[in-house]
Amino acid sequence: MKALASLALLAAGATAQIIESSSFGQSYPISPSEDSIPGWSVGGEGHDPVVLSNKVILTPPIPGNTRGYAWSNTPVSQSEWTAEFEFRASGPERGGGILQLWYTKDGHSPIGTSSIYTVGQFDGFALVIDAHGGRGGSIRGFLNDGTTDYKSHRNVDSLAFGHCDYSYRNLGRPSIINLKYTNSVFEVSVDDMICFSTTKIALPVGNSFGLTAATPEHADSFEIFKFVLNSASGKTTPLRSNPVTDAGIAAQFVDLSGRLQLTNKATSNILQDLRMQASNAESRHSELLSRAATKDQVAALDARLQRIEQLLQAVQRDLEGKDYSNRFNQLHETLRSSHLSLSENLQGHLLSVITASTPRMGFFLFMVIAFQVVLAVSYVIYKRRRANMPKKFL
C-alpha cells in the first residue's frame, strides 16, 4: 500500500510543471540583479521596490504613501493551472495598505500600480488582501469583463464574489495562498485552509499575472517571497518542513539576511541624509561668519563711541561750571528799565509836539502806535530767545 501511495504521489508530481517565465522565488537567489526579476517588470511610485535574495519588498515600512508592482511579461498559455503565492505584511499598530494578485488581459498596461479601488475597466480576476471591514484582515475575489469601471463605482466592495476573514498583519512568518483553476472549479486557500471556491467562473487563456501593493501614510511593508505557477491541475500541496529542522533553520537565516540587507540600506540612506544636513549647516555657518563684523570694525566702532562719550562729558562739565541764570535776570531787568524810561520820555515829547503843532496830530498818533508795536515785537523776540537758551538744572 505504501508503495502504491508513493507511486501515486510521484505520478501527481510528474504532472506538475513549473512555468518558469511566470514564476519567481522557487530557487535562491530570486534574481542575480537587485532591481529586476527575470521575466518580470518591477517598479513603483514614491520609491523603488527592493529585490533581495529571498524576497521582493513591494512597499517599504517607511515612508508611507507608496506603491509597488511586479508584472509577468509572459501571458499564460495553459487552460488549467495552480499558483502558490507567499507574502508577509508588517507595520505599526495602526498601519494599513492593500495587496492585489491580478490575472488580467494585457497585464501591466491597463493596471500599472492601481489597487482595486483605483483601477478602471480591467478584464480578468483580482485577489485582494486588505483590512476591509475592520475585522483584522480579509481575502476577497473580484471579476470584471472590461465593462465595469471600478474607479467610479459607488460600492466596489459589493462586487466581490467570494471572501474569507484572515488576519495577515504582523504574523512574523509568510502567509501561503494557493489558487487552483480547472475546468470544473476555481479555489482559493490560505495556510492550507479553504478560503472560498466556485464553479461558476471561467478564466480565459492569455492573461498575465501581476502583483500590486499600495500603502497610506501609516504604511505596511508588503514582502513577496515567491510566486510559482504550475501547469498541472493535480498538483499536491507540498509538505511543510518542521521549523526545528535544518531546512527551517536555513530559511530563517535567509530571511534574517534579507532583513539585514534592508536595514543596511535604510541606515545608509539615513547617514546620507545626515551628511547632507551637516553640509548645509556648515555652509550656513560660513555664510553667517562672512556677514558678521570683523574684529577691527568692532574696535573702530568702540573708539568712536568712547570719543562721543568724552565730548558729552566735557559739555556737561562746562554747563555745570557756569551760572547763566544771573545774567539772564540782569538782562531782563535792563530791558524792563529801558522800556519804562523810553515810554515816559516818549510820552512827554509826544505831548509837547502835539500841543505845539495841532495839524500834525495824526502823524504823531501813527508814530506812537508804531513804536508800541516795535516794542511788543522786541519783547516777544527776547522772551523766545531766553526760553531757547541753555538752562541749568539743580
From TrEMBL:
Gene3D superfamilies: 2.60.120.200. Keywords: Coiled coil, Membrane, Signal, Transmembrane, Transmembrane helix. It is found in: Membrane. The keyword RNA-binding does not apply. Residues 16-232 form the L-type lectin-like domain. GO terms for molecular function: D-mannose binding. It is a single-pass type I membrane protein. InterPro entries: ConA-like_dom_sf (IPR013320), EMP46/EMP47_N (IPR035661), Intracellular_Lectin-GPT (IPR051136), Lectin_leg (IPR005052). Residues 264-318 form a coiled coil. Its main location: membrane. One of its GO terms (biological process) is endoplasmic reticulum to Golgi vesicle-mediated transport. PANTHER family: LECTIN, MANNOSE BINDING 1 LIKE, VESICULAR MANNOSE-BINDING LECTIN. This is L-type lectin-like domain-containing protein. It comes from Penicillium alfredii.
